[in-house]
Amino acid sequence: KALPGVYDFATMTTMNTTEKLRKHALSIPEILLPNSTIDLAKWAVIACDQYTQDRDYWKNAEKLANGAPSTLSLIFPEVYLEDSGRTERIQDIHRAMHEYLDPAGANVFATPLHGCIYLERTTAYGRVRKGLVTAIDLEAYDWKPDTTAMIRATEATIVDRIPPRMEIRRGAPLELPHIMLLVNDPDKTLVERSGTRVRNNKPCYDTRLEPEAGHITGWAVSSEEDLASLADAVESIGKANTCPDGSCFLFAVGDGNHSLATAKAVWEEYREANGLTGEAAERHPARYALIEIVNIHDDGLTFEPIHRVLFGADPEELAGFVKDKLGGTLSVAADESELEQQVASRTTTCFGFVSPGAKTILESPDPALAVSRLQPVLDEFVAAHAGVTMDYIHGTDEVFRLGKKDGAVAILLPPVEKNSFFSTIAATGPLPRKSFSMGEASEKRYYLECRKLFS
Regarding predicted confidence, which is higher, 127 or 372? Predict the structure, then answer.
């Protein structure tokens, strides 16, 4: 009998399919979705690591849920991570998870879906992004810079961000995915072909996303034929992405790397504490993580830079410090539109400094990846100035909003190229932390699916 949350391969797939999937770090999960009585527009909530400087967004999310069953009750929005009462909030989250799972309680979930989910997400910007929700083996993931693991981080991992998140996952009966993995599939044989096979079937969910974040539809990928097609595609992609040393770089973490690192840390902790080895370790649900796979060649996938904001810094001093370190010239933009247009230019590398008193552009002659040069300079500035703090923000609108606040300097970064993404990571290792984002803030993954972790 399969453990909760782990796919029973013997009853659903041929051994050939099973072995292909296991070889490539995939496990077909048992996905929990809300039953037909649940309002999905209230159930679905954006990833917890978004809008970390916007408490009003999360207050509005509470108003939208209005006490109805919602993933908001099952997550810890990181805007509140440093507030007092963290332990109590985590206890409330775990309590809500148990209540939603209890047939005699809220009884939120429908019969589990044995399979994957192909989804199409139409964002507020009109882009359609395709994805495949499945589970990956955490033993095949490593965030360290020198790794040759099958699943690798694309950005530097901030180790001290992992322990607070472990408190949330440790012992939680459920997981909800906002992790998105990129796959290098130019022929579109995995995600897109799965969609071609199933999108004429009845969807397993179909809902708008609030507030004003577009629409999402998902279809089950669960028949033996559909799973065999999926396994064949993964095997082919694996061969195409195998290096001369025999290592295979199959998936790159696009979003949610710290959540994936947390999942791995909790699994390793649990495995060691319980002495799990062999089949017992292989079959335990905590060894796996629910994720969404997105093809890096998907036309609906855009890479956006993650911008910076410094609090307590003098705008002129900061801009001058960066100029001295990186070289280049400073100029003043007439307005937000000019600054945005200049920074977005692909003929030069520019940074925009936005503060209540000025809008300054630094044009740098170095063609190297902008954030890889800027981040060490900002780290040096913060270290040399007591009381100055830095945060990472998504979206141009947030840059200009925060740049209007007294004591804040928001820094607008240029666009990120994605065509050579996998080869760059394979050759040089992870990029600096918080280098890019897949889409604007409102385009980030919404929680919909769940999976059992611990009883």
Answer: 127
What's the pLDDT tens digit per position in 75-92? Answer: 999 999 999 999 999 999
Taking the chain, what is the end-to-end CA distance rounded to the nearest angstrom?
A: 15
From 63, 54, 94, 102, select the one nearest 76 (Cα to Cα).
Answer: 94
The answer to whether the beta carbons of residues 391 and 309 sit under 8 Å apart is yes
Q: Give pLDDT tens digits for 155-214.
A: 888 888 899 899 999 999 999 999 999 999 999 999 999 999 999 999 999 999 999 999
Query: How would DSSP label each residue in 367-422?
Result: -S-HHHHHHHHHHHHHHHSTT-EEEEEESHHHHHHHTTSTTEEEEEPPP---TTHH
Closest to 320 (Cα-Cα) out of 397, 385, 393, 367: 385
CB 398 within 8 A of CB 330: no
Residue matched to tokens 């790159």: 252
Q: Above 70 in pLDDT, residue 5?
A: no
- Whether the link from the prior residue into 315 is cis, omega within 30° of 0, is no
Contact 415, 305 (CB under 8 A): yes
Which amino acid is located at 210 in the chain?
A: E
The predicted model scores a pTM of: 0.81
Give the DSSP H or E segment for 284. Answer: none
